[in-house]
Write a structure and sequence with these properties.
The complex is a heterodimer.
Chain A (H helix, E strand, L loop, with lengths): L2 E12 L2 E12 L3 E6 L5 H8 L7 E6 L2 E2 L5 H4 L2 E4 L11 H9 L7 H10 L13 H13 L5 E5 L7 H17 L3 E5 L3 H7 L2 E6 L2 E7 H7 L1 E6 L11 E7 L2 E6 L4 H9 L3 E6 L2 H8 L2
Helix pairs in contact in A: 4-5
Chain B lengths: L1 H5 L3 H20 L3 H32 L9 H23 L3 H23 L3 H9 L5 H18 L1 H13 L8 H11 L20 H19 L6 H8 L10 H19 L6 H26 L1 H8 L9 H31 L5 H27 L5 H25 L7 H21 L6
Helix pairs in contact in B: 2-3, 3-4, 3-5, 4-5, 5-7, 5-8, 11-15, 12-13, 12-15, 13-15, 13-17, 15-16, 16-17, 16-18
The chains are: A alpha/beta, B mainly alpha.
Chain lengths: ~290, ~450
């Protein structure tokens, strides 16, 4: 699969606070990536930096093989973006907003927009200032899909949507990813959304992508191990993230399961249980 | 804590302290006791005006804040802070003015000023009354000569009554309510460092606006809506112009209306008061209103839309390098030319009707407008290019420069001075233009941080 985004040694600071620190990352065509990170981890900054909305101090970003600061019109036409905040012009109707946005692009699918408006029950005559945050979010997503992008960047797109709208939107994303093979990066706090849509997970922590892999691997990346052993028996646990001892019970979280070590334990009459963690718990363990 | 909120803002504190210290230093440095006395009175009134103006803005927020009914002892603490503030603000008058009667009357005046400014903030309609009073064809000098002693006597003897009235008003502060929209409007136009946590008029529900306001806004926006709906291609400047319009934008016919108003005022004043001599005051008021509104309103709208404009800059239409920044600066420059063109034309009409026009005045006006334009663009672009939010400092900068320059212009007009003969003024103009050019060339790479 060809490379869509390539980030090399990206650094960005706000005043003295380093938000992105020598970050390198590669995204391939067809990737649907859920970007996880704590509040203030720099998810929005990273997404905006990719689009050259934010200025970076150091590093290079290439989109479709071109430097993002000199991105050609052809390649800009291939990108859709949903910002986290709504700054759209409040006095315009949704129809006018669509017309305005359309004028910035060379290619635009009126059918796609009309279809989404119908499916999401969006009244085009309504003014932007009259919309609820959820309705506005739908409009922003619709505007991002209008140019039929090959790369879709979404900054917490489903945060303001109700559960029904969220599911519909995620379904739309899955369809887009499957039918049109577009690359999608979306930042979110809702880990269940990642399970529904993403095929890869990235975790942003301390200014770096500290984890990036397939979703299935992510689910197995951190597990909970419980041992019952004789009191005082010392255990040297490989890949240990943290552990807690209660009498002859040890509960620990490990970043990988060493099967040969487990076999060794069994031979010493130490019983153990492996418990899979949920995405949210895995994320918490990785960024602890 | 409430006292801190009421007086929050380094810029305001700085100016208040500066004026108070100016009053104190005058006592030591000026040999002429009459001049020292006059300086003390002027600096005290100016410092207290700034203080009361800012406090009144905060007060209206505090009495309309949602947590007022939740926090215990809220109003008790607020009232105590207000009394403390009033007492402290009167101390410079008490220590600096040596003549007891004048000192008491100045204190009365300060208390009236405080009450008036608070009343104006709660009921902005009262501003019309103040403007009408300012425009009255009476001479302040004559009043001072004829009624000065009487006013001082009345002022000093009525101090206990005014102080009691102020105290009673403070004790009933919880009863003061104001229309939220008025407050937002006021803060939008004149706010310093307090606007940060407020919902601006841009974010208020459009349908919650009064009918006349909606009609006015619609008649302005309809022009852009029809532009969008037509099949005609729109250029980059027009698209940026659409994105920069907001509910507080000056109406697209405002400039024509301003010129018409100037003409009507000039003709009426000439017909009714042939010896009317306050043309420079009308000119200054009209110019300040136009320049302040014409700069601060678009500045605030664009500041609020910064994220949106940055996003638009990343769209395919602006794929060419520097394309967005060049178009945006051109749009800004065009707006500035329109604004200052209108100011010059309106002033020429006013002076023309009053037959006070001269080549000196025209060149003065051109120079001042060039200075304003350069400083306005410099302030705006500097604020937008900064990573931290400097919007409030920028607004304070606008107001400060406008006030200083308006006084310069009024002095120039009154005395028929040729401003270009002043080295200081010319240096200021050249520095402002030079800095503006440097900032524009810096912003050609990127307008917003």
């Amino acid at each position: 699969m060809s490379q869509v985004i390539s980030i090399n040694n990206l650094s960005k600071a706000y005043k003295k606070q380093q938000v992105l620190n020598n970050l390198s990352w590669e995204i391939r065509a067809g990737d649907v990536i859920g970007l996880l990170g704590k509040n203030g981890a720099g998810k929005s900054t990273l997404l905006k930096s990719i689009l050259n909305i934010e200025v970076v101090e150091q590093g290079t970003i290439e989109i479709f093989g071109e430097n993002n600061q000199q991105l050609s019109c052809t390649n800009k036409n291939k990108i859709g973006y949903v910002p986290q905040e709504n700054d759209e012009i409040p006095w315009l109707s949704i129809n006018d907003l669509v017309t305005l946005r359309k004028r910035f692009y060379d290619q635009w699918s009126d059918e796609k927009v009309a279809g989404l408006m119908q499916r999401w029950d969006i009244d085009g005559s309504k003014q932007v200032s009259e919309l609820s945050p959820g309705q506005m979010q739908k409009v922003l997503i619709m505007l991002a899909l209008g140019p039929l992008p090959q790369l879709l960047i979404l900054d917490e797109p489903a945060a303001a949507l109700d559960p029904i709208a969220r599911r519909e939107f995620l379904k739309e994303l899955v369809e887009l990813a499957c039918e049109e093979e577009i690359s999608i990066i979306f930042s979110t706090h809702i880990t269940s959304d990642i399970e529904r849509v993403a095929n890869k997970v990235a975790v942003l922590d301390k200014g770096k992508i500290c984890y990036f892999d397939e979703l299935d691997n992510f689910k197995e990346s951190v597990v909970n191990l419980s041992f019952t052993h004789t009191k005082g028996q010392a255990l040297a646990i490989p890949h240990l993230l943290r552990s807690e001892c209660q009498g002859n019970q040890t509960h620990c979280v490990v970043s990988a399961v060493d099967q040969s070590w487990l076999d060794q334990l069994a031979s010493q009459d130490v019983s153990y249980h492996i418990n899979q963690l949920g995405l949210e718990d895995i994320f918490m363990e990785l960024t602890r | 804590m409430i006292l801190k909120i009421l007086t929050h803002g380094w810029l305001d504190r700085f100016f208040v302290l500066l004026f108070w210290l100016g009053g104190f230093s005058g006592q030591f440095w000026l040999d002429d006791p009459q001049k020292a006395f006059l300086m003390s009175v002027i600096t005290i009134i100016t410092a207290n005006f700034i203080l009361y103006f800012r406090v009144s803005m905060r007060l209206v927020l505090l009495t309309n804040a949602d947590f007022r009914s939740v926090l215990p002892n809220y109003y008790r603490l607020l009232k105590r802070s207000l009394v403390t503030l009033l007492v402290v603000s009167l101390l410079p008058a008490l220590t600096l003015i040596s003549q007891p009667m004048v000192m008491l009357s100045v204190m009365s005046l300060l208390l009236i000023l405080a009450v008036l400014l608070v009343a104006l903030t709660y009921q902005p309609k009262l501003y019309f009354l103040v403007i009408a009073l300012l425009l009255m064809p009476v001479s302040i000098e004559e009043i001072a000569i004829q009624w000065g002693d009487l006013l001082i006597n009345v002022g000093s003897f009525s101090l206990p009554l005014i102080a009691l009235l102020s105290y009673v008003l403070i004790q009933h502060i919880e009863r003061f309510k104001s229309n939220r929209k008025y407050i937002e409007r006021m803060l939008l136009v004149s706010s310093g460092s307090s606007s940060m946590d407020l919902v601006s008029i841009e974010e208020t529900n459009y349908n919650a606006q009064p009918a006349w306001r909606r009609w006015l806004s619609n008649s302005h926006f309809d022009y852009y809506r029809s532009m969008l709906r037509s099949d005609k291609a729109m250029n980059k400047l027009q698209l940026i112009e659409v994105a920069c319009q907001g509910l507080s934008s000056l109406h697209r016919y405002s400039y024509f209306v301003a010129i018409a108003v100037a003409l009507i005022i000039a003709l009426v004043s000439k017909a009714l008061f042939p010896s009317f001599e306050q043309i420079s005051l009308i000119m200054a008021l009209l110019s300040i209103a136009l320049i302040v509104l014409g700069n601060i309103a678009p500045f605030q709208i664009i500041s609020k839309r910064r994220a949106q404009l940055k996003q638009l800059a990343s769209l395919p239409l602006f794929a060419k390098e520097k394309s967005f920044s060049t178009s945006f600066i051109s749009y800004l420059f065009k707006q500035q030319l329109k604004l200052y063109g209108t100011v010059i034309l309106a002033n020429l009409l006013l002076m023309g009707v009053q037959q006070q026009i001269s080549s000196v005045v025209i060149i003065n006006m051109l120079l001042v407008c060039v200075f304003f334009m350069a400083t306005s663009m410099l302030i705006m672009l500097s604020a937008w290019r900064s990573q931290t939010n400097h919007d409030n400092s920028a607004i304070a900068g606008f107001l400060g420069i406008f006030v200083v320059m308006s006084i310069t212009v009024m002095i120039g007009v009154e005395n028929n001075l040729a401003l270009w003969t002043s080295q200081l003024f010319l240096t200021a103009v050249f520095v402002a233009v030079g800095l503006a050019i440097a900032k524009i060339s810096q912003c050609r790479n990127r307008v917003f941080a």
